[in-house]
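Deviations from the work plan: none for this task. Representative record:
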Amino acid sequence: MKVAVLSESPADVAALHILIDGLLLRPTQPIEPPQQSRTRGWSDVLQVLPAVLKHLHYRTDTQAFAVVIDADASPLHQPTHEVPGREVAKCRLCQLRRVATQTQQQLRPVSGRIPVQVAIGIAVPAIEAWYRCGLEPHINEITYLQNPQTVTDFHTRNHLKRYVYGTERPSLPLETQQAVAAAQRLVQSLSDLERLFPNGFGALARDVRSWTLG
Amino acid sequence: MIELMQFRNFKVLRDTQLPLSRFTLIVGPNGSGKSTAMQALRFVAQPGPFQFTQVATLGLLPTTTETVEVILRWGVPHEGVITTTHWGPRGWSRSHAKCSGANLSEREEQSLNVKLDRSRIYSLHTNVITIPVELSPNLELQEDGRYFAGVLDQLRDREPERFEALNEELGRWLPEFDRILFDTPSSGHRAFLLRTRKGRHALPASDLSQGTLLALTILTLAYLPDPPPIICFEEPDRGIHPRLLRHVQDALYRLSYPESVGEVRQPVQVLATTHSPYFLDLFKDHPEEIIIAHKVGQEARFERLSDQPAIAEMLGEAPLGEIWYSGILGGVPVES
C-alpha cells in the first residue's frame, strides 16, 4: 500500500510512517521524494491540503494519505464534534476534515483509480507529546484539556522539545533520530497512545484502520 | 558574549540599542541599520582607521560637544564589563571597564580584545569561494569566502573526523553529492570539487550553483574546530532553496549552541540578517532571538520581538514570516 504523509517536519513524517505501519499491522510503501510534501505550519497545511490531495489523486498512484498537525493552542477535538452538524469551526481536526472532504468531492474520477483514503490526526499540544507518551504520566490530552493556558506560551513547546530531544534547538538529524526512536517504541504499545491521546491520535488511528488495504 | 550594543550618532543608529542573544536574527527594511550594527563591531574592533565623518550620523557636525559612541555590554564570561568606543573630531578612544568600577585584569582585557579582533562579518561571494588557494599554514576563511579551498584542505588534514562528519552532513543537505574532493590546479595551489552520488563525477567548484557554494561554506564554518567567537552573517539564506533553510538554521545553531549537538567548544555568538519570511518562520518558538529593525525617517531603532506586547497571542496560528510581512510587527518598508 502506498501511503503519503503530510506533517510539519520531515522528522515527523518519518515517525508517522512507522506508527501507520503499526496501526495497519503491515509495512506500507512511503511516497518517496520529490513527491514528499512539506508545510510551514498550521495555516499553511490548510492552504496546501487541497493541492496536495489533487496532486496525489491525479499524478500518483498513492492509495492512502495521512495528515497530522499540532494543536498548539487551538480547541481540543472532542467526541461531540464527530456528530454531523456539530463540527467546531476553530477545531483544527474539524477544519482539516471539512477541507479534505470538500476537495475529494471536487475530484474528477480517474480511470482505474479509487479515491485516496484519508486519515487525519491532531497532536495535543504538539507531536513531541506523543513521543513522550508513557514516559511522563502528566503528558496526555486530559492534562492539556484541563490547563489550556499552558499550551499558549512558548515555554511549553520548548519544554516538550527539551524532553524529547535534550535541547530546545534540535538539528534536523537529531529530531529525525529521536522521532523515529520514539515511534519504534510507541508502535509496541499503540493502545497506550490511543488511550492517553484518544481524540488526537485516536482519530488518526480510527481513520487508518478503516482504510481498505490494497 | 555581548548582551547589548548601544549606539549614539553612529551612522543611521542615532540613539538606539540592540539586545543580543547567543543567536540573534535581525529583520527589517533596507537601510534600517541591520548591516550598520554589524559594521559597528568591526569599527569597535579596529577603531583607528576611521575618521569621525566616516562613522557619524549624516549631518552631524564635528563640534566638540557631539561624539559618536558605541557601547558593548558583555555577559558571560565577562559579566559587568562594558567596552566604550568614542569617535570625536579630535580622534577616537576605546576602553574596557567594569560597571562596578573595579579594575579589569590585563588578562581579561586581552581576552576581550582577541574576541573583538577575531569577530567576522561574512558576506560571501561565490566567485571568490571558488578561487584556488595558494597553500600556507593556518589559512582562515575570509569574510568574502576567500581561502575556502584551503580551509577545507586544512580541515581534512588536521581534523579528519570533523571532515568526515562534514561530508555526511553535506549528503543530507545536498543528496546529489556525497563527498568533497580536492585538486591541485598548479604547484602549491588547492581547489575543491564535489563528487556526485550518482556516477561519481567530480564537479569543479566553478561549476557548482551559487546556492550550493553558499550552503557548503556556511556548513563548513559550523564544523570548524575553532570558529571566530563572534560571527555576523549578511543574509545566510541568500540563494538557498527555502527547503534547505532548516539546515542553515541547524548550522547556525550548531555554532551558537554547540552543546546541543555534543560539540565541546565555546559557543559562537551569531548575529544574522534576513529578508526571507521562510527563514524567519523557523524561529517562531524563539521570539527572544528575533530583532525587528524599524526605520523612522533617517534613523533606525531595534526592538526585540519578545518585548512586543501580547506577542504570543499576536503570533497565534500563522507562520511568523507571514505576520512580519503583513507589517503588524514593524520592520517593513514605509510606503510613500
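The first helix of chain A runs from residue 10 to 24.
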